[in-house]
Amino acid sequence: MNEKPIRIAIFGAKGYPYVYGGYDTMIKELCERLVKKNVKVTVYCHKALFEERPSQVNGIDLVYMPAVESKSLTQLTHSFFSMIHACFSKADVIFVVNSANGPFGIISKIMGKPTAINVDGLEWLRPKWKGFGAKYFFWASKMATKFYDQIINDSDEMQKVYLELFNAPSTVIAYGSNPGLQADPNLIQTWKLKPQDYYLIVGRLVPDNNADLIIEGFIKTTSARKLVIVGDVPYQDDYVDRLKAINDDRLLFTGYVKDPLELAALYRNCYGYFHGHEYGGTNPAMLKALGYDCAILALDTPFNQEMLQQGTFGWYFQKNTKSVTELIDKAERSAADMSELRQNSHKGLTKKYDWDHVTDQYLAVFRNLAK
């Protein structure tokens, strides 16, 4: 208890208390717990995203850094400026998220500041990063292993990838969750839905989340249930236009659902939750599905196998429409088994995925680096 308070500088996401993606949520959950443990936390925020710019919120110090505002440069320039600022600050340790920020570790290396980086998933394999983008992510991830003092992966399978590809050891600290999540079933009436009357997909409509595969497999079934697709992309996209043009009355595209209570109700009351995410470690949407007691139907990947504990907490489909169709047919015939999956789903959120435990693990890393 008498240990000297350590100072942590954090950047790589949008800032605090901004919550949009997985990294933003992680920083919020982590920082709010760290300050309660007598840690001095500074979070670097994207200046353009914050109209009001208080210097402190909930005991967390905030620094608003500018960036070159363009699709490909915003994140990188923000991180570059943040790294320089953090290196000249009183921070004992700099914590960075996103492997795209790998090369900036050379700055902290030169300045002698201890660093840790959470490197996320296999970004270089994702279809959205074609050509130069994919090459950059692979190179940046490799540079992260050279320049940062501690690499953090969020799954055992991703730890194996970094060992095999870069010969780089890492510490595994999973993404956290909140089990026993509740929801108001009446909120799904917004879309004229009834409990267990629909399957659910949640995520950005990008090719590597495989919504097209799930939709094409679903429309070949005779299921009377709907398939609700939550998510979109914030730009004109041929892939998304093609999905929305599929003519089947059972398909319901909600777009983004920004009300967390409505989203909670959609999770909690679905008959089955489809998880088609292909690349990455511990997935936040999957953790939510476990927390809301969904019957999970997941793409068969090493990452999804790890999260569902080799089929204990979900069923799998292969990457083809026939497999999706067969899995839905099985789900339609197996109401009792699906009910059992829903009753037990939350048990998949073991201590490994508990935010308090996750915070303790990060704090141990930070204290070790600060020494």
Automatic annotation (TrEMBL):
Alphabetized UniProt keyword annotations: Transferase
Coiled-coil ranges per UniProt: none
Keyword Transferase: yes
Keyword Transferase set for record: yes
Domain DUF1972 residue range list: 8-177
Listed GO MF terms: glycosyltransferase activity
Record domain Glycosyl transferase family: where: 194-345
Pfam families on file: DUF1972, Glycos_transf_1
Biological process terms in GO annotation: lipopolysaccharide biosynthetic process
Protein name per Swiss-Prot or TrEMBL: Glycosyl transferase
Lineage of the organism: Bacteria, Pseudomonadati, Bacteroidota, Cytophagia, Cytophagales
